[in-house]
Amino acid sequence: MKSYDVAIIGSGPGGYVAAIRCSQLGMKTALVEKYSTLGGTCLNVGCIPSKALLSSSHHYEEATKHFADHGIEVPSDIKVNLEKMIARKQSVVDQTTSGIDFLMKKNEIDVYEGLGSFKDATHVNIKKNDDSTETIEAKNIIIATGSKPSNLPFIKLDKERIITSTEALKLKEIPKQLVIIGGGVIGLELGQVYYRLGAEVTVIEYMDRILPTMDAGLSKELNKVFKKAKCNMLMSHKVTSVERKGKQVIIKAENKKGENVEIKGDYCLVSVGRRPYTDGLNAEAAGVKINDKGQVEVNDHLQTNIKNIYAIGDVVRGAMLAHKAEEEGVFVAETIAGQKPHIDYNLIPGVVYTWPEVAAVGKTEEELKDANVDYKVGQFPFRALGRARASGDIDGFVKILADKKTDEVLGVHMIGARCADLIAEAVTAMEFRASAEDISRYSHAHPTFAEAVKEAALAATENRALHV
Questions:
Q1: Torsion-angle region of residue 181: left (phi > 0), alpha (psi -120 to 50) or beta?
Q2: Please, are residues 143 and 9 in contact by the beta-carbon 8 Å criterion?
Q3: Deepest of 32, 264, 270, 281, by most Cβ within 10 A of its Cβ?
Q4: Element of type H or E holding 329
């Protein structure tokens, strides 16, 4: 039996990053993955493939709708080759997962393919595809088994017409009418992919707005973008049934007035969130507690009730984000090594990769109001930027929330071009407890989208924005 300092169950962004950091810190490390490729949901059926399709569909939309504005003439019969688009997506995934293979070899991490489950608190059984089982021993074990798409109890997923995000990433045809249940990040990103390619898209959301956990201003602005693209946005609608009849899916819902509404489509994407995935883990054999939400219970050190077993990522409390899992993977590795790492969960950014992109960090206005915090707002529109007008990306704004007395930045919320990258400036500033004036006083290159951050900071500082 092979023995390790650390064994990690699950090779998503949390698991494989934890493995690398453990190896860097001199620990003999094993990584157990049930699938034949490393990288978990993010690399295989989540973050990376969805961004590949978003990029491809964005190119198509630019060619068909915006190239002419730039003096570029293209044939009127330009077409989508969905099969090639999906193949390119898979190529990006394959390159990325093979990169993880390389990193495992480079860091001398032993990789086991098979379903990892607890035999006890220091032994992991690995059931392989040929039904044989191998057992390894580890002083410390990290659970990094991630999440799976959630479903509503009355919906039967056939994975052909009634699908999850996994199937939406490999469709054989462009839907004529795509109905999306859930107005969160995943549904909106995939909805944008397919409306760009020609599908009629309907989004059904139970809450009164899309992106209900983000700042309301962002939700309102992105809703305008989707409506401008002629998407049917049904807010405050409770889905009551989903039924397939041949090639048609019939969705019934109740609106906020209690009236029955019927929506039809040839595909229905169920995108109502994700659930922690612990199936087959046999956590009880190690004595590890799992709460009624299906999450592995951990303390502030991400340690379970069994002192040598830790858990990270989507399987524990908090936002289900790849970069949050990565931070936790490093945190646990360094904790095991005796270091004193820290994570400020308030400063883990959230991003929606639609176009315009949506990004945020820190507190929302709603949260500050609920906490009775006296705050001020500085906001600046992208359309006032020379760079935005030059590229034709004028939708959106940057909003900075700062403490009214101390001027410390409490939250930054943005929607616009390249916001997924721009949010890093806000995270950096907030990590160093910057004030709005601090951000307004350092130079931003011109012309750039980043100038919107400076101008929003100026707006929060005695309403001193220069270009509005």
A1: beta
A2: yes
A3: 32
A4: helix 322-336
Distance set, CA 196 to CA 145, 192, 235, 244, 359 (Å) = 34, 6, 22, 25, 21
What tokens appear for 272 in the block?
Answer: 């109502």
Comparing CA positions, the residue from 418, 403, 404, 213 lying closest to residue 321 is: 213
| Full-model pTM | 0.96
| Cα–chain center distance at 299 | 24
The answer to whether 446 is a known catalytic residue is yes
Could you write out the three-class secondary structure of 393-409? CCCCEEEEEEECCCCEE
Active-site residue among 59, 66, 446, 467?
446
User: Pick from 122, 118, 32: which is nearest to 307 by CA?
Assistant: 122
Structure confidence at residue 107 as a pLDDT band (50, 70, 90): very high
SS3 266: coil
- Within 10 angstroms of residue 51's Cβ, the number of other Cβ atoms is 15
Mind listing the domains of the chain with CATH numbers?
A: 3-148+275-343 (3.50.50.60), 162-272 (3.50.50.60), 347-460 (3.30.390.30)
Strands 3-9 and 29-33: parallel
- The CA-atom distances, in angstroms, between 17 and each of 62, 104, 121, 253, 368 are 36, 10, 22, 42, 34
The encoded tokens of residue 295 equal 């999450």
Residue 41's pLDDT band, with cuts at 50, 70 and 90, is: very high
Q: Confirm if 416 and 395 have CB atoms less than 8 A apart.
A: yes
**Which of helix, strand or coil describes residue 169?**
coil
Show the tokens assigned to 283.
Answer: 């956590």
Q: Are 57 and 201 in contact (CB under 8 A)?
A: no
Q: What is the pLDDT of residues 169-193, one digit of tens each?
A: 999 999 999 999 999 999 999 999 9
**Residues belonging to the chain:** 468
Two tokens, residue 389 = 């007008």
Return the SS3 of 196: helix
Q: Which helix (H) or strand (E) holds 453?
A: helix 451-460
Strand 162-163 to 260-265 pairing: unpaired
- Decide: residue 360, CB within 10 A, 0-12 exposed, 13-18 middle, 19+ buried: buried
- Share in percent of the chain as helix, strand, coil (round to 5): 35, 25, 40
DSSP secondary structure letters along 27-38: --EEEEESSSSS
What is residue 303's DSSP assignment?
B
242, β-bridge pairs: 251
Q: How far is CA 137 from each of CA 20, 123, 292, 319, rounded to the nearest angstrom?
A: 19, 5, 29, 31
Beta bridge partners of 244: 249
Residue 283, classed as helix, strand or coil, is helix
